[in-house]
Amino acid sequence: MATHCVNLSKFFKITGIRHQSKQNRGKSFAFSAPTSEARQLEALTVLLHGTCSQKCLRALHARLAVAGAIRDTSVVMGLVQRYLSLGKPAPAASLFAGAYRGRPTVYSLNLAVRCFSDHGFHRELLDLYRELCAFGSDNFTFSPVIKACTAVSCLRLGREVHCRVLRTGHGGNVGVQTALLDMYAKAGQIDVSRRVFDGMVQRDLISWNAMVSGYSLNGCFLEAVEELKEMQQGGMRLNASTLVGIIGMCGGFEAKDVGSSLHAVAMKYGAIADESLTSAFISMYSAFDDLSSSRLVFDLQPVKDLVSFNSMISAYMQHCNWKEAFEVFRLMHCTGLGPNLVTVVSVLPSCNDFFGINQGESVHGMIIKFGLAEQVSVASALVSMYSKLGKLDSAVLLFCYFTEKNNLMWNSMISGYLVNNQWSMALDSFCKMQIEGVAPDATAIINVISGCRHTKDLHMAKSIHAYAVRSRFESNQSVMNALLAMYADCGDISTSYTLFQKMEVRMLISWNTMISGFAEIGDSEASLMLFCQMCHDEVQFDLVTLISVISSLSGSEDATVGESVHSLAIKSGCNSDVSLTNALISMYTNCRIVEAGQQLFDSCCFANTITYNALMSGYRKNNVSEKILPLFYQMVKNDVKPNLVTLLNLLPVCQSQLQGKSIHSYAVRNFTRLETPHFTSAMGMYSRFNNIEYCSKIFSLVGERNIILWNAFLSACVQCKQADMVADYFKHMLFINVKPDAVTILALISACSQLGDADFAACVTAVILQRGFSAKVLVLNALIDMHSRCGSISFARELFDSSVEKDSVTWGAMINAYSMHGNGEAALDLFSTMIDSGVDPDDITFVSVLSACSHSGFVEQGRTLFKSLQADYGIMPRMEHYACMVDLLGRTGHLDEAYDIVRSMPSRPSDNLLESLLGACRFHGNSKIGESVGRLLIESEYGKSRSYVMLSNIYASAGKWSDCEELRSDMEAKGLRKDVGVSLIGMT
């Protein structure tokens, strides 16, 4: 092109042209026969069309100006065209205005307007029109000007043009009217568009399409469908432009029948082959969750373009069908089509959500091959992919490679740090982002807020809130909702509620966040209050609202409210959702209405793993453990895969160690990573079967041991009567600087109680006092019990007297201490003091005081206490209370009264209770009652020799040798033998 600039003089003689008169120049350029100058000008015009740089174009423009050719229309429009093609609208406008000295002909103006419109310089077109419109306009002027008003959303100027159209008498032109109705439709004034359309005398296909498109654009689905029917009735032949807009609306309005009809219409009119319709139908069927139809439309397209491939990939990705999306991507590659930005941004999430690093790196290589790696959106997607795959170093490397980073890139990196639990790095990136001059947007703020929710750092949460306020994000609903959730997760629900009250516009998600926040802390009253206020403000609740309200209800007093919410769910049509069913099952079982939870489970057609877990947890909480294993067998039979929560429900109810081992083995085989609850639950299961060896193995295999695991292992040692191990592991725990908590101390105290070593008890007490645990009531109660079991009843009383805060357990522990030491009088006195101090005794306290009466033989006091148990305190007597009374009456010889209590019990008496009464009968020589009690024992305890021996001894003491002989014969017939006695005398 530089050569062109140098050799311009070869094409014409400037001097020859310069000395011609203006009149002759005009004639020679416009009308004369092809003289040498005209031929030179024609050659110069050809050269003009080949000019590809701004520098050459300016040089050529100067030569033409010197030659006096600027007034020739073809030359002027050629220069304008070249300036616009090079992206320079300002010189083009100046050239055009100057060439005609501000007075162009309508023809020239139309050429310029069309040229500016074709190159997309709409604002410059409107500026030119404002300057030159006074010199005339016609139909060919108005259409591109109106389209420019539509493109830049300048409705005010569009109305002015509309008025000029009507004044100049061009309002009946079809092209102008079509442009006007399109402008009003895109400005949201569909009623004005309709008036323009109704005023059209003649309507062509473009006009009808514009009207249908306008209705589609404004969400008027039914009107668009009616307009389509009217088109068909008028004999119009529909094309792809007619259908594409309305097809896109079918998915949003769930109009599957309409969508299928439109598909048939497209096939009827032969428009189905259009590429835009193929993509539209793929997306439409995807919105109907009908991916098979989407794939059929895709497969039937004879020649697939990039847009079709992108639509099919996007459809699969929206439904999380990662494998199928990647297969379509492979098919696209095999057909020779190169991906574009949309393709790779769509397909990359399949690598981090389904495939893995190998496929991700392959896609990355393809991105580099096709030159897309420099695109910021692609790089951001790659950073996100590598972060989610755990390759944070690769993500950081990609991030650092880009010198000019926008919000999208920074947000991807911050999100990547959060995914990998690098909270400090995420916050550091947030700060660097501002230092480098990139102002954080709402997404960046929300990302940092989510980090605060994860770490529960309230101080940092308040700092981020302050930044959001300072940066004027208070009007952003998404940021405000994130702040509500952040404060709720950080345990500051009061601040969250204050922020909620200050919100001018409360969206549904705002209400749900607050209701859910109060539900998580168990404040059902606040959740219900907000729900009622929400309904009063006419905010329509959704499924999440109902689940949040239901999850807040956990007490028996909430059952009535729960049933009301359940009725509301049925009325609103949400009861068919399995998530709501799961929440209702948990609610009913938490409210101790297990039958309702069972009925809901039986009526659920699509019970999933969570449904089974909800009912299992309900059985466990309501002590219906015998139903858990049959429910698990049903779960396996129905091919519902158990998860880790299922195993947590199963381990505590295993009926044998073999069952427990099987469940534990299943967890190890099928889950790559077990969490702390599973280790603790497994140790609890093995400790129930006294298998401390397996507990030790599990504990030793855990890499990172937190305080919960230490406590679980120490508790297992206590349950397996391995008190020495507790002391040793506690010392090791202190040596490696693991800070004990109250649960650790309670396990240590229990171990000390098992040992009964007063010196060790004193050491444990010193550790507790040194570390400040004595202020906790639970620890103090355990200390009182420990010292009483180690024989230090006086120190136990000192601890009791020194306690500022005493609950019923504290009083019960001291009463039980006196009971164990046989001091019934002190136990009764302390019980009276407890009543006088206003503390109501619980059922365990009554067990302790009745036991004290039994050990001391206080019959009258025992009778009085037993009667007051239910009469004065509303406590239903348990087996332990009956056992204490029977033991008291049996010891003191009141056998008839004791036997009356046995017969009046609401449930079958325990074997220990019957054995106690049988021993008393033998001691007091009452063979009649002894025989009745012995028969009860034999019937209930088939297969044990102890009951037979005790009854046989009673018969022998009463001289009933025949009955004794018959009983021993029966015992031998059943293959029962008396346990061999062992003497400890003389044993070392």
Summary tags:
disordered C terminus; disordered N terminus; 59 helices; elongated; about 0% strand; mainly alpha; about 1000 residues
How much of the sequence lies in strands comes to under 5%
Distance between the termini: 116 Å
Which parts are unreliable, with pLDDT below 50 for 5 consecutive residues or more? 1-34, 982-988
Radius of gyration, Cα only, in angstroms?
A: 44 Å
Sheet of most strands: none
Which structural class fits the helix and strand makeup? mainly alpha
Helical fraction = over 70%
Strand runs, count: 0
Number of helices: 59
The general outline is elongated
Query: What is the arithmetic mean of pLDDT?
Result: 82
Structure description:
The chain is mostly helical and 988 residues long. Helices cover 72% and strands 0% of the residues. The chain is built from 59 helices and no strands. Helix 30 packs antiparallel against helix 31, helix 46 runs antiparallel to helix 47 (758-770) and helix 52 runs parallel beside helix 54. The radius of gyration is 44 Å and the shape is elongated. The termini are far apart. The relative contact order is 0.01. Residues 1-34 and 982-988 have low confidence and may be disordered. Keywords: Repeat, Transit peptide. This is Pentatricopeptide repeat-containing protein. Pfam families: E_motif, PPR, PPR_2.
